[in-house]
Write a structure and sequence with these properties.
By secondary structure, the protein is an alpha+beta fold. It has helices at residues 61-67, 113-119, 137-140, 160-166, 178-188, 244-247, 259-275, and strands spanning 11-13, 28-33, 36-49, 75-87, 90-94, 101-103, 129-131, 144-145, 148-149, 155-157, 203-205, 208-212, 221-227, 230-234, 279-281, 290-296, 299-304. It has seven helices and 17 strands.
């Protein structure tokens, strides 16, 4: 399964979910990491066929693995976990969820970020830094509403290579990515003015460090949080599915642009997380998507942990 697999990922604007087009809050979970206050926000979810998570696996192999855990052999639910970090008086959002983007064939279950912030006593204008890890629509869809930026006071960060790729002319893009690029352009171009790039190892806010994790996209990044000797590695989409991506890290994902590099990155970061016994987070892991990675021979397993 190559880029052609992406052609099945078509998009439609969700339309208004309420009077102002925002979906209600569903779940939030806060915890401390050293001096940082972290809140995980459930932005929604979408479903896709399980074969996306093993494009080089044998026929039926992905479904059989998931069925061992009582999950569907045909469809996988993909939650969206947005992380709010409050560090040294700075509020940082990692990605924005889907906003008004809905994958074709899915019911509307996205765009819960703004209402969730309101429950926390925050408005979009209270966010200081919007840290975008890559340009996929399920990460940048909440940037704008009807062409207007949502987080009007925030500094927006996205690597140059990501902005340039996902805002290119659709006609010049690989056929399997054209519809996705159209959707990305709809949300990225209105916030282009003042967009800042970042590089590997850069400290974007106090204790918030960029970790190059290419493969899923050309400029995909993970994020490491450090405070008072505690650390959390946000894998973002390094491992897209919490079972297949860990138990079979060699399986390629249909949505990965550079599949061999994505496998290499996945094994490297999972090994680091397991060996250093770090807390990790996964953008598409079950809410709240925070736990640890343990080794299982040549593979890994995600174990959720209590958050206090």
């Amino acid at each position: 399964m190559g880029l052609g697999a992406m052609a099945g990922l078509s998009f439609t604007p969700s339309g208004p979910a309420g009077a102002d087009g925002m979906m209600p809050m569903r779940a939030i979970r806060g915890f401390d990491l050293g001096d940082m206050k972290i809140t995980v926000i459930d932005d929604g979810s979408f479903s896709m066929g399980v074969n996306m998570f093993g494009s080089n696996a044998g026929e039926g192999a992905v479904g059989r693995l998931l069925s061992n855990y009582g999950l569907s052999e045909t469809m996988a639910e993909m939650p969206l976990q947005i992380m709010l970090i409050e560090t040294a008086g700075v509020r940082v959002l990692i990605d924005t969820g889907m906003g008004d983007v809905t994958f074709h064939g899915n019911e509307i279950d996205n765009g819960r970020l703004v209402r969730s912030l309101e429950v926390l006593g925050l408005a979009p204008q209270d966010i200081d830094i919007l840290l975008l890890t890559h340009g996929h629509p399920d990460h940048v869809g909440g940037l704008t509403v009807q062409g207007e930026r949502v987080f009007s006071n925030a500094e927006h960060y996205l690597p140059d290579i990501e902005f340039e790729f996902w805002t290119q002319s659709p006609e010049r893009a690989p056929a399997g990515l054209r519809e996705m690029i159209i959707e990305c352009r709809r949300h990225l171009l209105p916030v282009a003015h003042g967009m800042r790039s970042y590089t590997d190892g850069q400290e974007i806010a106090p204790g918030v460090f960029a970790v190059a994790a290419p493969g899923h996209t050309h400029g995909h990044y993970a994020i490491q949080l450090r405070s008072r000797g505690e650390s959390l590695l946000h894998l973002v989409d390094t491992a897209v599915h919490y079972i297949t991506g860990l138990e079979r890290p060699d399986w390629t994902v249909g949505a990965d642009i550079d599949k061999p590099l994505a496998v290499e990155t996945r094994k490297r970061l999972l090994s680091q997380a397991a060996d250093e016994r770090m807390l990790i987070a996964g953008y598409h892991f079950p809410f709240p998507g925070v736990g640890r990675i343990i080794r299982m021979g040549d593979a890994f397993r995600y174990v959720a942990v209590p958050l206090v």
